Fold this protein.
Amino acid sequence: MKMSRRALLFAFILTLVVACVAADSVDVNSSDGAVVSEDVAVVESLEPQQVKVGLYLLNLGKFDVSSGSYTADFYMSLTCETECDPKFEFMNGRASSVEKITDEPNSKFYRIQANLNNRVDLKQFPFDSQRLTILLEDKEKTVDELVYIADLNQSGIDPSIAFTGWDLKGFDATVSEHEYPIYGETYSQYEFGLPISRIMWNSFLKTFLPVIFIVLIVLFSFILDPDKVATRLAMAGSSLIASVMFHISITNQIPPVGYLTFADKFMALTYFVLLLAFVINITLLELQERKKTELVEKIHRRTEFTMFILVPLLYLLLFLFGF
């Protein structure tokens, strides 16, 4: 009877031990499973969130070449694969108004009006081409947390846009990384680009046609006989004054720059032609004072032909190789 009680007690203790060991095993396994799932979640969180950006341009304000500023009115969509709420900002200006039209967990849609600014390159003025951009970055999340993707299917420009004085050359949308070395941070940057160029024929008529007629007047003065050299000098002098005043009016259209524009090169060549006309006429006047009539006639005949060949050739070379 005693042996049976001891056997029952032993069996009971053994059962408790086995149950405890099994419970520990289950806890360990469940704990391992939790660790594995947490590791997977951590790995997934290391992947940057992808945000598709679509931009549809509705209108453009006047482009001020002197400051590189302009206004833009557009729709912008932000689409994520998961729930998101990006906090964006414009890196080349500020939004004057932002209206959120759609606010869904993984989709945002805005109507935005922004005052923007761009760098201006006037080396080819008045035949210059510019690139207007809209630069977008997140305010808080670096490239390790958020990456923009250009959504070309949701991007475009409205056909009704009329940009006075410029030709619109379509659009493009790209994404790059913008590094801030002083802060040790890099952000994903979305760029909507709008290439524009001046209307070539209009620029030629307004900028170069008046100067071309001034030069033609000076050239035709060489048809006059050498005895009218004083009249030729007066025509060259008035043409020089008119050219200087016209050059000033051209340069007032653009800001002060540290390089020569194409218009500056054209006017510099015009000054050279007028200076050459002055030198020839003064030389003829001096020879007339010395009574060297034959030499005057010889120089007159040669310069009359040479100026009508040399001057157009110089301007042609400028237009071919000056760009």
About this structure: Confidence is low (pLDDT under 50) at residues 21-44. The first helix runs from residue 2 to 46.
